[in-house]
Amino acid sequence: MQFLSDNAAAVHPAVWSAMLAADAPDSPYDTDTLSRELDGAFSSLFGRECTALWVATGTAANCLALAAMVPPHGGVVCHREAHIEADEGGAPGFYLHGAKLMLAEGRSAKLTPESIAAVIDPIRDDVHQVQPHAVSITQASEYGCVYRPQEVAAIAAFAKARGLRLHMDGARFANAVAYLGCAPAEACGGVDALSFGFVKNGGLGAEAIVFFEPGLADVVRYRRKRAGHLQSKGRFLAAQILAMLKDDLWLQNGRAANAVAAEIAAAAGPRLLHPVEANEIFLTVSDEERAELRSQGFSFYDWGVDGARLVTSWNADPDHVGALAKAIRAL
Amino acid sequence: MQFLSDNAAAVHPAVWSAMLAADAPDSPYDTDTLSRELDGAFSSLFGRECTALWVATGTAANCLALAAMVPPHGGVVCHREAHIEADEGGAPGFYLHGAKLMLAEGRSAKLTPESIAAVIDPIRDDVHQVQPHAVSITQASEYGCVYRPQEVAAIAAFAKARGLRLHMDGARFANAVAYLGCAPAEACGGVDALSFGFVKNGGLGAEAIVFFEPGLADVVRYRRKRAGHLQSKGRFLAAQILAMLKDDLWLQNGRAANAVAAEIAAAAGPRLLHPVEANEIFLTVSDEERAELRSQGFSFYDWGVDGARLVTSWNADPDHVGALAKAIRAL
Amino acid sequence: MQFLSDNAAAVHPAVWSAMLAADAPDSPYDTDTLSRELDGAFSSLFGRECTALWVATGTAANCLALAAMVPPHGGVVCHREAHIEADEGGAPGFYLHGAKLMLAEGRSAKLTPESIAAVIDPIRDDVHQVQPHAVSITQASEYGCVYRPQEVAAIAAFAKARGLRLHMDGARFANAVAYLGCAPAEACGGVDALSFGFVKNGGLGAEAIVFFEPGLADVVRYRRKRAGHLQSKGRFLAAQILAMLKDDLWLQNGRAANAVAAEIAAAAGPRLLHPVEANEIFLTVSDEERAELRSQGFSFYDWGVDGARLVTSWNADPDHVGALAKAIRAL
Amino acid sequence: MQFLSDNAAAVHPAVWSAMLAADAPDSPYDTDTLSRELDGAFSSLFGRECTALWVATGTAANCLALAAMVPPHGGVVCHREAHIEADEGGAPGFYLHGAKLMLAEGRSAKLTPESIAAVIDPIRDDVHQVQPHAVSITQASEYGCVYRPQEVAAIAAFAKARGLRLHMDGARFANAVAYLGCAPAEACGGVDALSFGFVKNGGLGAEAIVFFEPGLADVVRYRRKRAGHLQSKGRFLAAQILAMLKDDLWLQNGRAANAVAAEIAAAAGPRLLHPVEANEIFLTVSDEERAELRSQGFSFYDWGVDGARLVTSWNADPDHVGALAKAIRAL
To answer: Does one domain contain both D229 and D178?
Structure first.
C-alpha cells in the first residue's frame, strides 16, 4: 500500500488511448497536429491567449521557464524548501548558467510579499551582489498547501512593482485548483509562466510550460532544443496533455487524489503538521508508530525525526486508503 | 509516401506492449525493476560489463556522454557535418559548459585518424588554445555510411594514443550493425560511451547511453538529473529499451529499414552521392526531377542545389518503396 | 580620515619599485623570469613544494581555485556571510558553471567541523540533491576573526574524511598570520589551495593562488586564460607579489594594520561585536554616535541598524588612528 | 632584437607617471575620480556619447562585450583566424555560456558582408540550428590589415539589416586609426561595442570596452564583477587609459609602431604575404632564411612552413629595425 509519492503512479487509461491514437505518422518535433493544438487548448482553459510547450519533466519545465526570465548574473527568489532548490539536483544552476537561488522563508513553504521583501530588500543595488530578477512560487506548495487567488495576486503585484518576473511551479496545480474550486486562471493570476504538471496526475511523461507572456516562449523554443528536450516524436507528449485537458480529466484526477488525502487527514487530526489542502499529508508520528504503520504494509517517507510524509494519487485504492485511515486512528 | 525522416515513424507494437505492461506501479526515477535490468541487458548484448542509462533523446544522450569526458575548457573533435555540430541547437555548448567542437573533414561524414590528426596536430600545447579531450564519431554517419570494425578500432587506438576519450553517436547504430553483420561490440570497439538510438528505429522516446568505462556513468547520473532528464516514470523508458533488445528487435528493425534503402539505392544507381550502407539515400536530382517525384506524392528533403535526402523506416510500406524505386528509375 | 576599507589604500613603495624595475621587456604572459620565480618563492615561504599563479583580483583567485575542485554539478560549503556568497556578484556561479554554494552558520563568520556537518549531513546521497565537493573558509574571516592552526587542522581533517577539498580565501591572510605569530604554513595547514591576498595589504593588482595540490594548478592555468585573467604583461603582477614576499613585507604590513586596529579596539571596549584579531573592527554604535563620528571626519560603513565596520590599512595615519580612538572613547 | 610581439613591450613613461599620481587613496572599484572620467574622455574622442569600462585584458574586453550582445543559445560570426576563435583559450565559450562562434572566411582575416552572408544564409531559421546574434570584426585584423571606414560601414549596415549586433576587437585599434588617418569614429562607425586596446601600445594592464549602445554597458557592469574583473584599485587602470588618451598618445604610439613596420615592409618587398597596414609583417622566408635571421639575433614567430610573423612596438629601437631591414634585404 504505497503512499510514497504520486510521481510513479499508473498512467490514466485516457492517456494511453490518446497516445496509441497518435501513433499514425505525423511530422516530427513539435510540428505535428497535436502539438499545434496546445496553444488553443490552454488559451481556452485559461480564458486568455497563451502559448504552451511540452517537455518531459517538471524540472525541465521549471528551469526552462526561469531561464527565459533571468539572466546568468541574476537571481530567483524561492522558498528554502522549494523543489527547484532542494530536489532538482542543481538544475537551476545549469539552466540559468549560474544564476542564484535566493531563499525565502514562509509557513508551509508558501511565500508572501513580506517574506520575499525580507530577502531582496537587504540586497544593495550594486554589482557586488546578485540582483533578483524573478520569483518562483509552488502551487500547491511543497507541504501541500494552496495559495488562494488573492495570495497569488498579492505576490504578482509585488513582483511587478519590483520589476520581477513571476514563475509558478504547478507540479500539483491540478490539486490546487481542485481545492480552490476556482477558475484555473485565478489560481495563477499574474504569473508570467506556469509549469503545469501532468505526470503526477495520470500522465506518463509530459508537462506543459504555459506562457502568459509570449516573448518568453520564443526563447524557450530554442532553449528546449538546446537542452535535448525537443523529442522527435513530440506528438506523444502533446497527446498526453490534450487527453488530460479533455473534459477536465486533470481536474477530476486532482479532486480524486485530494479527496483521499482529506480522508486520511481527518483520521490524523491533531497529528497534522500542515493543513491538508492538496494530496500530501505531513504527520507527527514517532519511530514506533512509523514502524507500526510499515508493519501493516504502508510505505511512505520519513519526514524529519518524528514525522512522515504520505502522498495520494489519482488512482488510490479505496481499500488501502480506508485501511490507512483506520491504522492512523488506531495509533 | 513519407521519406523525410525515420525520426517520426510509428512505434513498434512490441514497444507499446512493453510500455502497457510496465504500468503497474513501481518505484520512481531509475529505481524500478526494469531500469535496473538495463546494465545486464546491455552487458549481455556487448559481451562485456557495461552500464546503461536511459534518456529521452539522442541530443541528451550525446551531450551527457560528452559532458562526462570533456571539461568546460576542453574540446571535442567531430565531423563538420556531425549532428552535434549541425543539428542539436548548440546543445554541446550548453551541456559541456562552453567546451569547443573542433571540426574535422572526411568523406561521407566519416572521420579517420588522419583527419582527426589534421585538426589536433596544429593545436599548440599552451593555454591560449583549447586542447582536445575527446573524439565523437557517428555510426552510421550523417550520410548513412558505416564505419567498419577496423576503422573504429583505428580511431580508438589513435584516440587512446593521444589521450582522448571516444564517443560514438549511434542514433542509427542498429542500421550500422545490420549492415556490418558483425557482433555489436565490434561495431563500437574501443568506444568509451555509445549513444544507442532506439527512437528512429521503433521506439517512442527512449535512448540508451552505454558506458564501457563505468566512472563516466557515475557522473552522468548526476548530470542527467541536473538536466531534467531523469523522468519519474522512468520504467516506461526502460520498458521501451528492453523491448527493443528482446530477440534483437532493434537489429531486425535496422535490417528492415536497410533492405528498403538498398532497394531504392539499386534504382538510383549512378545518381548516388554516397554509398548506401544504412537507411539513408542521397541522390543527385535536378529541380525538375524533385518536383516530379513530389508530384507523385513522395516527400523528402532537398539536399543542396541538386540533391535529395531520402530516409527509410523500420516499417516502410513495400508499395511505397516499390513505387519510389520505379519513379526514380523513370526520371 | 578613511576607515572604509583596506581595498583602496595606497600601494607600497617597494611594490612600485619592483614594478618599475620589471619594465624591461621580457616574454609575455607567465613565461617571464619573475613569474617563473613564484613557485620557488612560495615553496620557501611555506616550507613545502607548491605552485603559485597570479591573478588580478581575489574574486578571480577564489573562483579559479574552487573551479578546479568542484564539478559543475557539485557544491561548496561556505559561511553564509563568506565573500564568495555575499560580495562577489555571483562569480562562483559563473566560474563553477552553476555549482551550488551551501551556506553554513558559525560565530564571527568562522566554520567548524560541526557547522559544516550540519549542512552536509542532511544531504541525501542521491542525484536529486547537489553533493558537496569542497569547503571554503576565510582566513581572517569576514568579521576579522582568525582560525587558530588547530581549528584549520580540524576542518582539514574533517574535509579529508568526507572526501571534500579545502579552499582558503586569504584576502587577509597576512593579518591572520600576523595575529597568530605562527609559521604561514600553520595558518593554512591541510588546505588544498589558498587565495593569498596582497591587494588589501600594499599591492596594486595582484593576488596569488597557491596550490598545495599541484594537479589543481594544471587545470587553473587553462581556466585562468579562459577567464581573461592571463595578462600579457604578467611580469608586473609577479613583481608585485615578489616584492611583497621579500623580507616578509606582507607580514610587516599585516602587523601594521593589525596594530592600528588593536588600538581602536582598545578604545571601543565593550562596544565590540567581534574579537578584533585582524584589521577590522565591528562596533555597536547608535545612529547619533555614527553621525557624531562622521561629523568629525571619520568615514566607515554602517553595519546593520546599530553598528559600524571600520577597517585599517597597512599605512594608516597614526594621527587619524589616535583621533579615532579618542573619538570612540568620547562617545 | 625582439619582434615576437607587441604584447610584452615596455610601459610608456606617461603611463607610469599617471599611475604613480593615482596612488593617493580614492574610493574603490570604479567609483574613483579617474574611472568616472572615462565616459567623458571617450565621448570626446569619438564625438558622440558613449560609455566606457576598463578591464585588464583584451580577452575580457572582447568576451564581456559579446556576452552582452548574444544569449547563451546564440552565435557570433567571426573570422576563422580571429583572436576570439584561435587564441583566447575558449574564453567566448565561457563568457557566452556556450554560445557558438560561426567561422567565416576572408582575405587577410577581414570579413565582408558577403563572407558573413556565406555563413549565415545557409542557417535554417529553426531551433535545430544556432541562430546568429552578432558579428565580431578585428581592427586591425589578425594579419595587420585595416578595414577602411566604408568597409566597416558596409558590415555595420549588413549587420543591422540582419538584426545582428556588431563588435569590434580593437586590440590594435590605434594602429588602424594611425594608418587610416581618419577620425577614430570613422574607423569603427556603426559598431555597438569596441574593445579599445592599450596594452599592446604602451599600457600596462588596462583596456577599455567602449559602448556606443548604452544598455550593453549596464549588463557588463554586472558581468565584469561576476568575472572577477572589477579590480578594487581600479583607479590605476583608469589612470593608464586617461594617460594614453591625453594628447593622443595612443595615436602617436600607433604611428610609431606602424612607421617601423613600414620600414621593414619596404625591405621585404615581394616576400610580403599581406599588405602591411599596421604593425605586423608576414613574410615568406625559408627555413634557412629564418635560421639566418635568428643567428643574427632577431626573434620572431614562425608562420606556417615557409613564413614568419614580425611585430613592431611603439618603442622599437631604430637600430634594431634598421638592422632587421638590412638583414631581410640581404637574404
So the answer is: yes
